[in-house]
Amino acid sequence: MSLQTRETDVETLNVLETAALLRELTAGLINSNDFDDALAQLVRTSRDAIPGVTWCGVTVLRAGEPASVAASDPLLTDLDDLQYGADGPAMTAIRRRELILSGDLRTETRWPLWTRRALALGVHGVLSAPVDIDDHVIGSISLYAQEPNRLIESRQLTAMLLAEHAGLLLAAVRDRARQAALVGELDGTLLDGELIGQAIGVIMTQRGCPAPEALQVLRTASAALSIPLRDVAERLVASVSRPRGN
Q1: For residue 6, what pLDDT band results from cuts at 50, 70 and 90?
Q2: Which of 47, 70, 168, 184 has its CA at a distance of 20 to 30 angstroms from the CA of residue 231?
Q3: Is residue 182 assigned to a domain?
Q4: Any idea where the ANTAR domain is (predicted)?
Q5: CA 153 → CA 59, 131, 159, distances in Å?
């Protein structure tokens, strides 16, 4: 078998492995409404699906909220926590918005404190890719190798595709979580007063929109007019209940 044939076979195998990983990630996260659970699923799936990767971690920065960390193994929790007090590949990937690779941490000089801790935990290679989720949430996904020089060039492409796909999936999870929270608020509002429920029904009929959107219309009107939500609902219901003049 020629060298070119072997290289072609390896590339084909890498493409199939990456496709299987993205398919498994989609299946695992497509119905999730919990962001933290989705992060946990992401790191477990990535660890198990990518050859040469021993552990996986995700670091997420959310505007106005504490940072989140998910790790495929409790071993990495301390390593990720350390990145908030000192520089490291995950935070470097977030800050520079580019792929960060260290194939052999024994020769790494960029993050002395982080590297010493990583080597002590048995980590000898790391590949971190930035993840863009939405306007308020960014992060990075890091692939860790127990052996040096396992994160080869083909793994860099996998990491880039993984980060892009994960960003899209996590953005969808956040959207579903917000929608679920809004529906929960809607349910509570309906229980609080039949009048508000009637007003929501009027808006749904007039605009042909779902209940959460109708509730948001009421809230927007309440804020714009500086009057309570119930008063806005009362005026709306009264306006459509008046008998028509001759």
Answers
A1: very low
A2: 184
A3: no
A4: 176-237
A5: 23, 19, 10
